[in-house]
Amino acid sequence: MSDVPLNKEKKNKKCSIFGNKYFFCSGKCSINKKPLGFPFYLIIFSYDFCHTFYYIYKLINLNIFYLVILLIFTVVFILQLIQTLLTTLVDPGSFLPNTGEDNSNSSEVKLMIATIKQQDYFLKYCSTCKIARDLRVYHCPECGLCILRHDHHCPWLSTCIGLNNHKHFILLIIINLLFSIGALSILLFFLIIFNNTRFTILEIIFIYFLLFVNLCIFLFHIVLIINHAKYICTGQTTREKIKRSKGAKNPFLLPTKCDNMKEFWESPMKYKERVVYNDKAKKFLDNNILINDYLSGNYRITKNKKIISLTLINNGFNYSKGTIEMAKNEIKEDDIDEEETSQSIKVEEEPIDTNNNISTDL
Q: What is the mean pLDDT of the chain?
C-alpha cells in the first residue's frame, strides 16, 4: 500500500482548533486547551530528579561509582522526558468532526453493522462529532473528539491514549517504573550506608519525603504495567475491558498472547481487515477522516468518495484491491471538494433488519 498516491496539499494554518484541543505540526501533534495535569506531572518528576541528583552529586568525590550512577540516572530522566513529550504531544488519533448538517438519524445508525468472528455489532453514532463511530472508536468528553483505538484519557498527561501514542505510553510507564526503582535504591542506600551522618535534618526530611513519593510512583506503575500487559496480551484496550460486560466475547482476540502482542507493536490496525461492514456502514465510515491526515494532506479521495488514510496504512491496515486500484487513478485537485471530507454522505433509507443476533457490547 505504500505506493498508493496521496493528496499532498498543505494546509496554511499553523495551529487549528478541534474539540477541546489545539492541533499543530500539520495535525500530527495536539495539546488540550487546559492541560491541568501535565504541568503537575512534570513538576513531580523534575523535583524528584533534581533532589536525587543533588544527593548523588554530593558523594561523587568519594567514589567514581557514584559518577556512573549519576550518569545512568540522568539518562533515564532524559528518556523519561522524551517519552512524556511524545505521549502527550503526539495526537492519539482524533477524527475530524462533521461541521455540516446532521444527516444520520437513529434509524440509519441501526442499519450500520460490522461483523467479526461471525458476530454482528451495531455501530454507534456520535451526536457531538456527528460522525458514525467505527469499532474501537470512542468519544472522549475531556478532549471533545472521537479517538481511534481509544484506550483511556490520562489526566496526568492531559491527553487520550489511542492509536498513535499508545506505544509511547507503554514505554513511558516502563521508564517511570525504572526511574522510581533507581531513586528508591539510591535514597535507601544513602540512608543505610551513611547512617544519616552526612545529611542535615532538613535533608533527611527531604529524603524521606522522596522515598514516600517514589514508593507511590513505584506501586502505581506496577499496577499500570500489569494491567496493560494483560490487556495487550488479550487483544483489548482498557476502555473495551471496562465496557465489555461479564462473559462477553472479545472479538479482537487472536489465538495466542504472542500474536496479540505482535499485532499491538507492529500493526495495531490489522484487526480492521478481519471486520466485514454492511453497505450502510461503509458509506458512512469511508467518509470519516483523521485530523492529522486532513491537516497534513496525507489522504486521497477515490471516485466513490472513499478516503484512503496514510495513518491507517502506516499502522498495518491494507485497503481492498478495488479501493487501491481506484486510488491509483489520478484525480485532479479541482475535482476534490475538501469540505466533503468532514461531512457524512447522505444515503437513502433502507428497511431495518429485524435480526436479533446483533450485539452492542463491544
A: 82
Task: Report the Cα 17 to chain-centroid distance in Å.
Answer: 19
Determine contact, residues 218/201, Cβ cutoff 8 Å: no
Whole-model pTM: value is 0.85
Contacts with 308 (C-beta within 8 Å, 6 or more apart), sequence order: 4, 6, 299, 300, 301, 302, 319, 323, 327
pLDDT-based confidence at residue 55 (cuts at 50, 70, 90):
confident
Across 306-314, average pLDDT: 91
What count of other Cβ atoms lies within 10 Å of the Cβ of residue 125?
20
What's the one-letter identity of residue 315?
Answer: N
Specify the DSSP class assigned to residue 123.
Answer: -
CA–CA distance, 60 with 239 (Å, rounded to integer)? 47
Which residues fall within 8 angstroms of residue 315, CB to CB, at 6 or more apart?
163, 267, 268, 269
Going from the C-alpha of 89 to that of each of 12, 80, 158, 159, the distances in angstroms are 20, 14, 10, 8
**Domain coordinates in residue numbering, the chain:** 35-89+164-233, 95-159+267-359
Task: Give 73-81 contacts, CB < 8 A, sequence gap 24+.
Answer: 73/49, 73/182, 73/183, 73/186, 76/175, 76/178, 76/179, 76/182, 77/45, 77/49, 77/179, 79/175, 80/45, 80/172, 80/175, 80/176, 80/179
Question: Cα separation of 142 and 160, whole Å?
Answer: 9
- CA distance linking residue 99 with residue 131, whole number of Å: 10
C-alpha to C-alpha distance for 87 and 164, rounded to whole angstroms: 9
* Stretch among 32-41, 208-217, 352-361 having the lowest mean pLDDT: 352-361
